[in-house]
Design goal:
It is built from 15 helices and no strands. The chain has about 300 residues and is mainly α.
């Protein structure tokens, strides 16, 4: 009896399929193990970028602070994508990659302006407008639900919105209420992609906002494949291969967008030579969408 209890106790410590006793349950290596070189590259890039932020001089200067904060947002996006992919959740990671793409095309447009400083101020003022609109909506919600709210703050917000952001007002609605423009530069992401100096941006937009749109929005198209997948022999290997392929593509997009974003920020230190090395390593490892499998040069990165 004692031996039986001991055997059962030891069995509970065994992982996975051995515990269930179900022969149909297969154990496979985690994405963290299968895609280890890709995750190592992502870690190398974000570690170097973290160091660049810390070592950025004159961080109290507003333009420098702006670029540093944009880079930090990009760094955190890469880290978030890596975390999701390490657990096999590529379909959730693509939403973060889309954010990174939007940040990139906005910074590319900002860099193309005749006066980047004025463009940065415009970008920041639109951010303030969005913050005030969010506070206005929150106050309206609290008031409607009968919750306590700061009436003085709400009045101050309304005053700023009424007097300080005329340049962001569009054509009034039929009822006369204010219609705010949807972006700081009055262009959406698709337009910014077309305006980019990189001819691949419209292609990237098509992949992220059309081909992968169902994944970002959890639409039926994102669920139907698994719902009707045949449980034939080899289905596990097929599912793993498909997930790895999508994960590699997501990593390629994420790193390309981030490295290009870093180069677009003139007040943060960046080595074009290192960026070229990272891109070259990525292209050799993956050769993903828009990334030819060849070494890159610092001149290509800087243009």
């Amino acid at each position: 009896m004692a031996q039986s209890r001991k055997r059962k106790k030891n069995q509970r410590k065994r992982p996975g399929a051995q515990v269930s006793g179900n022969p149909q349950v297969e154990r496979v290596a985690s994405p963290r193990g299968r895609l280890r070189p890709f995750f190592k590259l992502m870690e190398d890039v974000t570690s170097a970028a973290d160091k660049a932020v810390v070592e950025t001089p004159d961080v109290e200067d507003q333009l420098t602070r702006f670029d540093a904060e944009i880079l930090v947002r990009g760094i955190n996006s890469v880290k978030a994508v890596r975390s999701l992919l390490e657990h096999g959740h590529w379909e959730h990671a693509v939403g973060v990659t889309r954010q990174l793409f939007e940040l990139l095309v906005n910074m590319e447009h900002l860099g193309s302006m005749e006066d980047r400083g004025e463009g940065t101020l415009l970008f920041a003022r639109f951010g303030l407008l969005q913050t005030l609109l969010a506070q206005q909506r929150k106050a309206a919600y609290e008031q409607e639900k009968g919750h306590p709210f700061d009436a003085r703050l709400a009045a101050m917000v309304d005053q700023h919105l009424a007097n300080d952001f005329d340049d962001f007002q569009g054509k009034p609605r039929a009822d006369g209420s204010v219609r705010w423009v949807s972006s700081w530069c009055r262009k959406d992401t698709a337009e910014l992609a077309k305006l980019s100096a990189d001819p691949m941006r419209p292609y990237h937009y098509n992949i992220l906002f059309r081909v992968w749109s169902e994944q970002a929005h959890a639409a039926p198209g994102a669920l139907i494949t698994n719902m009707f997948r045949d449980n034939d022999d080899g289905w596990v290997e097929q599912a793993v291969a498909e997930n790895d392929r999508s994960s590699r593509d997501t990593i390629a997009f994420t790193l390309m967008f981030f490295l290009r974003l870093w180069v677009e920020l003139p007040h943060v230190q960046v080595s074009h030579e290192r960026v070229a090395e990272w891109l070259g390593e990525l292209s050799i490892m993956n050769g993903g969408p828009g990334l030819p499998p060849r070494p890159w040069t610092a001149e290509e990165v800087s243009t």
